[in-house]
Amino acid sequence: MYITDFLTTWERQHLLELASGTFTDSNVVDSSGGQSPHRFRTSQSTSLYRDDVVRCIEERAVAFQGYAVPKSHVEPLQLVKYGEGQRYHFHTDWFTDPANAKTSGGGNRISSFFGYVSVVNVTDGGTNFPMIEAPHDDRWCAFIDCDEPWEHGVTFRPIEGNFVYWENLLWDGSGDNRNLHAGLPVTSGQKVGMNIWTRQAPLTKELRGEI
Asked: Where are the coiled-coil regions (predicted)?
């Protein structure tokens, strides 16, 4: 699902100020449940301090989904920064290893939002879903890369304030492979995206960054 203007201009500026100086090399979750850098993900990222603006965005994300779950199921909001040549290879947001999806740790990720806080002179760097068919309607060309061959799926352009939302799990709780996606390499410029992930179960206060 595509969402325009999920974040206001003021909110985006506030988030950039809040995150200033806090970005570090992005990690991926490994088979032990720990997190470490990996050559497949070459961006920088940061988890946002939960001030009133961040809490408001969390509430907006939960309300949008219509889930009867409290904000305790939402992971700390994450900003991710990509510069020239940086990318995130094909991956799913849901955990493929059951050890990383235990209820005691919040379970698996039932849904994802990904969108943009800042896009400065960016060439390329879209988000590609190779298993999702691109819409055959020229009106979508403002939001997707219509020059991408149809057999490559759909690539969403980096546009400030706009987000893509998808559900990660099938009705039986297994992961939906159609949600495979990648952050394509940035040819020039810099973009800052935002991840919002909702889990099956409540996260501990430690994981929520509340202690």
From this structure: none
Q: How is domain 2-22+41-208 classified at the architecture level of CATH?
A: Sandwich (2.60)
CA torsion, ordered 56, 59, 61, 65, to nearest 10 deg: -160
Distance, CA of 47 to CA of 26 (rounded, Å): 11
Which residue(s) pair with 191 in the sheet? 82, 119
Nearest CA among 14, 2, 28, 106 for reference residue 56: 14
| pTM as predicted | 0.91
* Residue-level pLDDT, tens digit, the chain, 211 residues: 999 999 999 999 999 999 999 999 886 655 555 555 556 678 899 999 999 999 999 999 999 998 777 889 999 999 999 999 999 999 999 999 888 889 888 999 999 999 999 999 999 999 999 999 999 899 999 999 999 888 899 999 999 999 999 999 999 999 999 999 999 999 999 999 999 999 999 998 777 777 6
Q: List, in sequence order, the alpha helices (H) in 28-184.
A: 52-65
88-91/181-183 β-pairing: antiparallel
12: region left, alpha or beta (phi > 0 left; psi from -120 to 50 alpha): alpha
What are the residues facing 188 on neighbouring strands?
123
